[in-house]
Input
Amino acid sequence: MGRYVLRRLLQAIPVLLGTTFLIFAIVYALPGDPLQALAGEKRVDPVFAAAMREQFHLNEPLIVRYGYYIRDIVSGNFGTTFRGLPVSTIFEGKFQVTFKLAMTALIFEAIIGVGLGLWAALRRGKWEDKAILAFTLLLVSIPTLVSGFVLQLVLGVKLKQSTGLALFPVAGVGDGMRSYLLPGFVLATVSIAYLTRLTRTSLMETLRADYVRTAIAKGMPRRRVLGRHALRNSLIPMVTYLGADLGTLMGGAVITETIFNLPGIGQQLFQSVYLRENPVVVGIVTVLVLIYIVANLVVDLLYAVLDPRIRYE
Amino acid sequence: MRVTKGAQIVTATALLALAVAACGGSGDTSSSSSGTAAAGNAGAVRVEIAEPQHDLIPGNTTETAGAEVLNALFVGLVDYDAEKKPYNRIAESIESTDSTTWTVKLKDGYKWHNGEPVVAQNFVDSWNYTANGANAQEGNYFFGSIAGYDELNPGEGKTPSATTLSGLKVVDDKTFTVQLKNPFSGFPTMLGYTAFSPLPKAAFESEGKLKADFGSNPVGNGPFKIAKPWKRGTDQTISTVRNEEFKEGKAKVDAVDFKIYTDLATAFNDLRAGNLDIMDQLPPEAIATAKQEFGDRYIEQPSSGIGYIGFPVESGADYAKNADIRKAISMAIDRKTITETVFSGTRVPADDFISPVVAGYRQGACGEACTYDPAKAKALFQQAGGDKMSEVVIGYNGDGGHKEWIEAIANNLRTNLGAKVTPKPVEKFATILDDLGAKKWTGSFRMAWIMDYPSPENYLRPQFGSGGSSNYSGFKSKEFDDLLTKGDAAKTLDEGVKYYQQADDLVLKELPYIPVYFYQTNGAYSQHVKNVKIDPFERIDLFNVEKA
Output
């Protein structure tokens, strides 16, 4: 298994190179001069601009600049922003915020998604099942932007205004874990819907399997049949989904973090694209790709735990 | 194979833990930063800002968020009264007999937060630092009128031949002199700007070199001092506490927290929920409800910006070169409806080239030309042969939220003049500026100006003077230039204003630009505070804010 992990990690290198180069090329191909963005609507001072172009190798061809960038990354240096701040400073604490947010969302997803999915599968065809399916349809059809602002207004602002209760903070991370509840739920909404449906289908499939029928016929307690035989065997697609979703959640936190003013990488990414801080954009995406790769690896390794038939040699 | 399975679980868990650790970025320092993001002073007045673009260094700050914070930490030579005129703060007097050589005398008793007195050398050090091109300070250009500036900023590829401004001389601890390149009676009006703040000795590592951490933990001389160092890019709050030793007396509140938001709508929700106290700019979509919701606590006042439609009067198309057609276009624009509906009341119709926030503004100075009169406009347009000319192009940058009002103006011109109008979006504002510079842009274009310092001169010379730094219309008039020079050389500010207004009348007649709207400050504050005032720089008067 050690060899398997090593091989997977080595495979990650070309993936990482490829994705960073793509991002690099896209970011620098965006129309508009990043140095002009520094000056707003005024003209950039030509002397200053020349010095900056020199410092950031902006006059070199793309591939040469990419070379410089990779050289810096390998030596652990993410570079500096056009506004003179080390990119690594910007990362400080920000990935933590986003990771906390993504984990909160993941927990919501796992509890509500799996819970509803189970319920629906066990009540197949009954009104509960139909209600849950309708509910998931509702969840996927509301964009995060809308659910975010509505929940913020209702649970954050109106609740506080009418009752004085500040159960859910409107913005920021000033209230510890409580700050993450609302944004975490908003971030999770769409995934909850998918996971519910996935769980429902997967479990229904397993419930029809021969060994489950055998177990029931043997007179095994219902709880044990469900937990030990049915659920565990239908876990693989759910784990795959949850694992891949961690990466998606971290990258997709842009809107949620902006609405709730959480100082995470999503908000930073948005700001940096807006301000044309290309070094930050590329840096963040590089780390996100890394997280994605690792999350996928962990998921693959978890398969073996869930299904002993799977071996890594 | 239970053992193997156990090992697998351990490996997987370890990997997960690794991933978690990797996500923390540089995990060692992050714990402290999340702590500061959460904290902030209990009972502090909380003010909304955007993230300052640079560290807290006065000479490097030309945007409003950083200026808001620096305004609490630093005071300068002068400040501005309700009539928008400068009054002395640290300065005892700022005098000149020829408007060229200025003698600045300082008052006693102003102290730095570290206890040292504010002396003349502090100003000279700070100005020399900011004016030095090698230090790449955003506020560098403010010093362009001082003698010796060119030696410090020789241009691309050349090394400066000096490290200090030859025009600055320290006479004694309380006095210094400033030699300008040309006479400028409005010089004192510039001195209230953030870039002209002094810096303490403690700011400098050696002569002309700023300490690396000064910008995160500045030592100021103002009514508030920094409570703990601010980490740019990481901390969401900049905390300040009252300076008990401030010469002008104690501020009325103990502490001010500047909270950084990236989204105005979010900040507004926080204000409504009582987690924020003062916002000096509301999100446009909230203005209508904010008026009702906040009542007396809603603030509406002019700010320094003006929006224009400009014309390349020298190198443009036929219609752009014709002053009568420009006037007809101006008269065909329904400013009132545009400001009220398109901008939901966040702008007001413009009637002068000089903003209402500076002394010298005259209500209705633009007269007939800025008054909506479709019938007269059409008559003038046809009389000048406008209907036979090419279509009117209005260029604007598509990234700045200008589409709606440009389209509205285009419709005005179509309906009222019968003209063919093409609104033409471009990617970036700079594209239009570059094309104008190369005389490739022949159509009209959107334009805006926000003042650098509160003088009518600042609205006129850069935009319409021959060789002005932002003269994009190519307008040239010797008479206009002469009037500005007369204004600059005048003995007193008031006398200078008289000449500036005459120059203003001249461009109002020629209309190289058409003034369309004045920007506005739309703010609001919570029930926790009172006596909230906002100055023409859009800075909150935090010294006088009180707890309600």
